[in-house]
Design brief:
This protein is an alpha/beta fold. It is about 45% helix and about 10% strand. The structure holds glutamine and zinc ion. The site of glutamine has 13 residues, from loops.
Length: about 775
């Protein structure tokens, strides 16, 4: 036993003695090295494939469970071999951890209750069926992971269904894994839920006893520790809510026969909630030290001194190798204030790829700067060893890390003087166009569009021919010339279809884009793509976010050939389609050595160059999509104005290089604008297309109220469903829109891109849309 560890145990023993006198005590062994949660889709996306096979009826539930069990067994064994002495279990999920919590608490929506099979009932809540609407999906805090929003209605009768979690716990304990069950905590669960009739938090009183019972069952099954995730404490909470947190955990920790409780916070600073939690008898708190910069805030909470502080010093959501020296300094400070400290990732490893092992395509330098899931586990272990046995035990590893970090700092790709000089030379005029009214006149003259112009958002169905061509190119079965020929054939089809349907502003259909961010990242200096860096986005959908590591520069035009080709086939205007800087950053792993605002300006400059080249090639409309503008919004209101300021500036930098006669469009993928509504006006795009089909145009009133007076295309039908809307329905939508927006500002379009839809339904829906526009004109 190491000296540090003996000191630790001694400290805990005396503390236990102390507790014995005041409350019911749980005996527990502190741990030293852990992570807060695990990815589950499988290193080769095995779970994704098995789940989709199950949905398609190719395998049965038994086979799906077997794949899941295998994945869990291998993963736990690896973590144990890597030296973690407390390992999360129960973060495995067939779809989503919030949905799992709803199932655990008997809170699946009543409309799926009739489905007898529990697995099918669960998937019905996640994805819907022919007759059942799924739960809504939304972003997990400020990450790109999407969770399912639990629905709490007056008839929700909470009840405990712990079988799945208990089974995973038993499975782990049988393999002698030091298992720590993880459950979303009651406050976060209710805060994320949608309640009909009152606030979901009003139901807390019903949940706490269930959590108490769950703790008892987990302890009885052999869990020494349990982790309750409460990331909601890093958002703005009212004083009452903070008091509720204190009371809830006071009650849960007063229970007899329970495991030691670790409350996990991540993605930000817990603020006042930290004091409330520290004042209860919970045994541990996990804090995100990649987000909590001011250590002093933590050190200043004396009640923490008696608890196990699980220090998230290894960034769980970005891919950079940890600066071990800095992490050790943080850990040292924490230990110095008489705290028992364990080392951890800052959050679940759900948000990073499994391992760097498969990344053979990255250059050696770049690779040495990175750490994916497995490498982060190794970092946690190293830090815990250094903390408990002294830094001299990891001298070699420290040397390697220092060398890697030094090579990163010195790499010329991180500092492109040309890009920096261009940005520094841009004056305020570079972000300004003529007043909107003036632009409107110039553009109307040039474009000669009818009233209520019809258009689409950009993509057309990604047919199997497109996917096959992409795969064949990757495998080397076809050469680039053949690939281009096939893509051009797709473009020609899409243009011909739009001509036939009578749309006014055409698009090329985006067949050449696997993904609206990756497509650009692959062509820009400063970005690297991974081979197998898959991260779960939601359910079985996985993405491979590019890695932004250096200064961004555009080598050559990225879209001009495709768009010009489409324009050469028609006299109608074809939109040049681009992705905006905020969205490119939101869906990438970003640099941590400069601010997001600085990175955004560099990306914006590259997009700006592209818009200018499109214009020079005769393109009269450019569209810069920013579907992620709201996604990146900081969790705390106090941080939002600065974000909105730089993100709007970046968009304007990207779009104000063109002449006033070139029409700038943007597309945003949502209709609940909330905090970003002023920013939307600030973008100053000539035309903004938004989602509105599901919110029945109320969104236009919100925009008006914010003083927005530019062109707007509220989606007139919902592309998220395969249903073809009738002419009458779309006509009704348009009439509703005309109550809020004068005809000269109104555009007619679906509410998002069409790439996930089938060609037959797309043609039918667009035909009806064009007919409806004609009728209303
Ligand atoms: N232009 C993109 C498309 O149509 C926009 C996608 C999006 O909004 N997410 O596919
Ligand atoms: Zn969209």
């Amino acid at each position: 036993m190491s000296l540090g560890f003996r000191v630790l145990v001694g400290r805990l023993a005396s503390r236990t003695q102390h507790w014995r006198n005041i409350v019911t005590v749980s005996h527990y062994t502190p741990f030293t090295a852990t992570v807060l949660g695990l990815p589950r889709v499988g290193p080769q996306r095995e779970l994704k494939r098995a789940t989709e096979s199950y949905w398609a009826g190719r395998i049965d539930a038994g086979q799906l469970h077997a794949v899941a069990r295998d994945l869990r067994r291998t993963q736990l064994a690896e973590l144990q071999a890597a030296g973690l002495d407390s390992i999360p279990v129960g973060t495995f999920s067939y779809y989503d951890q919030v949905l799992d919590t709803a199932a655990l608490l008997g809170a699946l929506p009543p409309r799926v209750a009739g489905i007898a099979d529990p697995l099918d009932r669960y998937f019905a809540a996640a994805r819907g069926t022919d007759t059942v609407e799924p739960l809504e999906m939304t972003k997990w805090f400020d990450t790109n992971y999407h969770y399912l929003v639990p629905e709490i209605c007056p008839d929700t009768a909470f009840s405990l269904h712990p079988e799945q979690l208990l089974e995973q716990l038993r499975e782990a304990l049988a393999a002698e894994v030091p298992a720590r069950p993880v459950v979303v905590g009651p406050i976060t669960f209710l805060k994320l839920a949608k309640a009909s009739g009152g606030s979901a938090l009003d139901r807390l009183g019903e949940l706490v006893p269930l959590y108490g019972e769950l703790l008892r069952l987990l302890a009885a099954a052999g869990a020494e520790w349990v982790q309750l995730d409460e990331p909601v404490v890093v958002t703005d909470l009212t004083d009452d809510e903070i008091e509720l947190i204190g009371n809830t955990y006071a009650e849960l920790s007063a229970a007899k026969d329970r495991p030691a409780i670790l409350v996990a916070t991540y993605f930000g600073k817990p603020g006042a909630a930290l004091t409330a939690l520290a004042g209860t008898e919970i045994e541990g708190i996990a804090l995100d030290f990649t987000a909590v910069t001011e250590l002093s805030e933590v050190v200043a909470v004396p009640a923490l001194a008696g608890k196990l502080l699980v220090a998230g010093v290894v960034d769980g959501r970005n891919v950079w190798r940890a600066d071990l020296d800095r992490a050790l300094a943080t850990l040292g400070t924490l230990l110095g204030s008489a705290t028992t400290v364990a080392v951890s990732s800052s959050c679940s490893l759900l948000h990073v790829p499994y391992t760097l092992d498969t990344e053979t395509g990255l250059d050696a330098q770049l690779r040495s700067w990175l750490a994916f899931g497995a490498e982060k586990v190794a970092e946690v272990r190293l830090l815990a060893t250094a903390l408990n046995e002294g830094t001299e035990t990891i001298t070699t590893e420290l040397g390697t890390v220092r060398a890697a970090l030094a090579s990163r700092r010195a790499d010329i790709r991180l500092d492109d003087p040309k890009v920096r000089a261009r940005l520094a030379a841009l004056g305020p005029d570079a972000l300004r166009r003529a007043p909107a009214e003036q632009r409107r006149v110039l553009q109307a003259e040039r474009l000669r569009l009818p009233a209520l112009p019809t258009t689409t958002i950009g993509s057309y169905p990604q047919t199997s021919a497109i996917r096959l061509a992409r795969a064949a190119l990757r495998k080397g079965d076809i050469d680039n010339a053949e690939y281009v020929r096939r893509m051009r054939a797709e473009i020609a089809d899409v243009v011909a279809l739009q001509e036939k349907l009578g749309l006014d502003v055409l698009v090329h259909g985006e067949p050449e884009r696997n993904d609206m961010v990756q497509y650009f990242a692959e062509q820009l200096d400063g970005f690297a793509a991974t081979e197998a860096g898959w991260v779960q986005s939601y359910g079985t959908r996985c993405v491979r976010p590019p890695i932004l590591y250096g200064d961004v520069a555009r080598r050559t035009p990225m879209t001009v050939d495709w768009i010009s080709y489409a324009q050469s086939l028609t006299d109608k205007p074809v939109k040049g389609m681009l992705t905006g800087p905020v969205t490119i950053l939101a869906w990438s792993f970003v640099r941590d050595d400069q601010s997001l605002a600085d990175s955004a300006r560099q990306v914006a400059l590259a997009i700006r160059d592209e818009t200018v080249d499109l214009q020079a090639a005769g393109i009269r409309i450019v569209q810069v999509d920013e579907p992620a503008l709201r996604e990146l919004l900081p969790l705390r209101a106090a941080d939002q104005p600065a974000y909105l300021d730089w993100s709007v500036q970046a968009f304007r930098l990207a779009t104000s290089g063109v002449s006033d006669a070139t029409q700038v469009h943007t597309h945003l993928c949502y209709s609940e604008f909330g905090e970003v509504i002023d920013a939307i006006a600030g973008l100053d795009a000539d035309v903004t297309s938004i989602e509105a089909a599901r919110s029945h145009m109320e969104v236009l009133d919100d925009l008006n109220a914010a003083g927005f007076d530019l062109g707007v295309g509220p989606g007139v039908y919902d592309i998220h469903s395969p249903r073809v809307p009738s002419v009458e329905e779309i006509t009704t939508s348009l009439r509703a829109a005309l109550k809020a927006v004068p005809a000269e500002r109104l555009w007619v379009n679906p509410d998002c891109g069409l790439k996930t839809r089938g060609p037959v339904e797309v043609e039918a829906a667009l035909r009806n849309m064009v007919a409806a526009a004609a009728a209303v004109r």
